[in-house]
Structures are given as structure tokens and as C-alpha cells.
Amino acid sequence: MPIVVSTAIGFLMGSLPFSSWLVRWRVRKDVRTFGDGNPGAINAWRAGGWRVGVPVLVLDVIKGGLPVALARFVFDLGGWSLVPIALSPVLGHVVSPWLRFRGGKGIAATFGVWSALTFWIVPMTLGLSMAVIMTFQTVPAWTVMMAALATLIALLLLRVEAFLVVAFVLNVTLLAWTHRKELLSAPKLRAFSRKKQAGDD
């Protein structure tokens, strides 16, 4: 029962569309009319500036991490039982019933989940990898996927428990699905990277 309850809590918390609610409250507009239409922190920032974007980002990270933290430290769950619980907030964000099952891309919720699972290891590796990759190419979806691959390699090198590797692969699969349209485009090098390559030739 604790596994089922924790998974349900994770899905329900993950489904809370803070970007939609805060933008509608502060800006009186629909966050999905900004940018790429994704109800997430970046478009919340575009809609209402940092005063809306930052709270949305923090809340999206918290809603990913809190259910996993409750499962680990309150219900004392561990190992393979954490796999469905770890996926549930991201899934809730992606197919939020509050938004007619058309939610966001799940990146902030992913950072929250893995903060609760591994503390700094995955968030730091994933975040730094994204920052480095973004300096060389411009397609956000490919930045996420390449950074996820780098993080997976790090987890394997660190020889973490198998359930963490499986949970991460499933999480990344969800992210790939939410970014599927962008992934149809090839990665694009930034101008300075192309010039550098041309100069090397």
C-alpha cells in the first residue's frame, strides 16, 4: 500500500500546473500562448518575467522531489519500489489532468525527483552537462538528450544501484517523448562552433 499511495501522491503533485495557474493569476493570460506553448517555467518567465518564472521553477522542482522524499524518509521505501514513485511526478506533469492531459515537458520535475533520489549527483551532472552542451548547439531537445546520456554514463561509472539506472532510463524515455517533435530536427551548432571548425580545416 505505501508504494501505491506514494505513486498516487507523486502523480497528483506532479500534475499541478503551477505555470498555468501563476501566469493566469499574475498576467491574466494563458502560459500556452507564449514561446513553444509548453506550460513550463521558461514560458512562465516569458509571460511574466522572473517574478513568475522563478516561483514556477521552484514549485515544479519541489513537486517532483517532495513525493520521492516522502516515500524514502517517511514511508521508508527503497530499492525497486522507488521506480514507479520516481516516475509518477514526471508523468503527472506530462499528462496533467488539469490541462486535459496535455502537460509540460517534465525537466524541472525531473531535477526534483533526482534531487530526492541522489541528492546532488544527478542534478549537478545533468545541469552542468546541459550548460556545456548549450554553448555549442542550439536545439534544446538535443541538449536535454545529450546531457541525459552524459548523466547515464556517469551513473554507470559510479556503479549506482540497478534500480536507479532503470529509473533514470525510463525518466529519460519520458523526456524524449515530450521532446519528440524537436528531436526530428538535427542538432545545430552555434555560429562560433561552426567558424572554429572551419578554421581548423
The main pleated sheet reads as: none
Overall form? globular
User: Helix count?
Assistant: 10
Q: Which regions have little confidence, pLDDT < 50, spanning 5+ residues?
A: none
Helical content band: 55-70%
Q: Which secondary-structure class do the elements indicate? A: mainly alpha
Would you report the number of β strands? Answer: 0
- Topology as a string of helices (H) and strands (E): HHHHHHHHHH
User: Cα-atom Rg, whole angstroms?
Assistant: 17 Å
Tally of discrete structural domains:
1
How much strand? Answer: under 5%
- Termini separation: 62 Å
Mean pLDDT: 93
Describe this protein's structure.
- With 201 residues, the chain is mainly α.
- It has one domain.
- It contains 10 helices and no strands.
How would you summarize what this structure contains?
The protein has 201 residues and is an all-alpha fold. 69% of the residues lie in helices and 0% in strands.
Notable characteristics:
201 residues, 10 helices, globular, mainly alpha
Task: Compile the SSE list and pairings.
Layout: H1 2-14, H2 18-26, H3 41-48, H4 50-73, H5 82-94, H6 107-118, H7 121-134, H8 140-157, H9 162-178, H10 191-200
Helix pairs in contact: 1-4, 1-5, 2-3, 2-4, 3-4, 4-5, 4-6, 5-6, 5-9, 6-7, 7-8, 8-9
